[in-house]
Amino acid sequence: MEVQKEIKQGIFYPVYLFYGSEHYLIEDTKQKLIHAALTDEDIDFNLSYFDMTEVPVQVALEDAQTLPFMGERRVVIMQTTQFLTAQKEDSKIDHDLKRLEQYIDDPSPETILVIIAPYEKLDERKKIVKAIKKRGGYVKVSPLSEQEIQVWVRQQLKERHREISDLALTVLLQTVGVDLTTLASELEKLSLYAGEEQVIDEKMVQLLVARSLEQNIFDLTDMVLNRNLQRAFRIFYDMIEQKEEPLKILALLAGQFRLLYQVKGLMSKGYGQNQIASTLKVHPFRVKLAMQKVATFDMNELLSLMDDIAEVDYKIKSGQVDKQLAVELFMMKLHKG
């Protein structure tokens, strides 16, 4: 990210807006900015957080216009800025947005104001959004592509003086998925385990990295569709031991069947991976995995499975059958079918 390079070089804007749906990168960029702009001693006295669902913007601005205490600058962070979107605000706080516009036009030279908007879209029609785009460090943080995630993983490991083999990286993404928070945690664990071994290999990944719920659902779907009852039950019982609710597992299973059905339908119309991801609003990596599976499955079969799950869901919620037993019977029925 260009803004992170600027921060590392000590180049700061008086006002920043970090927005988008990739929360990990927003938090990471915010922390890098704080530690580049303030010393450890300054953080105690010159760093302030304000939640915009609890206080009006004018309170944050009063702090932004206060001189730093025994330091060079102050950092003021405004969080949960729902007023920048087209959504109806959850809180009843009366925000003086005109005053915020005036501050952005003439910001305090001793303050870095950071506005956090963890939303996919902002309301570009609003004056305040236009003002920030014109005068501030306007940074959209979108989910990374598969290739960008691979680069990101290698960069994270480089900072720890580690590398990862191509196969290990593939296994890592297949096991964990594309959630950066989870990936960061697993990379920290792998780096510590590697010790003097600079290169992380697939054996380390297989030994240490826990399978994500999403990956377990993906594998369970695969086993159900292939009528592999033994492995399907093994995955299901592993999730039960991990305290996952049968109803939640059933809902996620239905979602995965729905994704496969939609992907197959769009592929038949000539859509590519990125087009499908954009249409369905899911990460391209998930689409890639689905595209690898759907060729051998019939549309009617997937539709029938979704109907069966809906029936099981109804029986559970109406108290006709125990929830875990219902899922077990569903899988056994498929095996006999």
UniProtKB/TrEMBL annotation:
Say if the entry is tagged with keyword Nucleotidyltransferase.
Answer: yes
Quote the EC number. 2.7.7.7
The Gene Ontology CC terms held by the record are: DNA polymerase III complex
One Gene Ontology MF term: DNA binding
**Pfam families (alphabetical):** DNA_pol3_delta, DNA_pol3_delta_C
Gene3D superfamilies given for it?
Answer: 1.10.8.60, 1.20.272.10, P-loop containing nucleotide triphosphate hydrolases
Q: Which residues form the DNA polymerase III delta subunit-like C-terminal domain?
A: 214-334
Give the GO biological process terms: DNA-templated DNA replication
What UniProt keywords are attached to this protein's entry? Answer: DNA replication, DNA-directed DNA polymerase, Nucleotidyltransferase, Transferase
Boundaries of every DNA polymerase III delta N-terminal domain copy: 16-140
Recorded catalytic reaction(s): these are: DNA(n) + a 2'-deoxyribonucleoside 5'-triphosphate = DNA(n+1) + diphosphate
In the record, the note on similarity to other proteins reads: Belongs to the DNA polymerase HolA subunit family.
The name of this protein is DNA polymerase III subunit delta
What organism does the record attribute this protein to? Answer: Bacillus solimangrovi
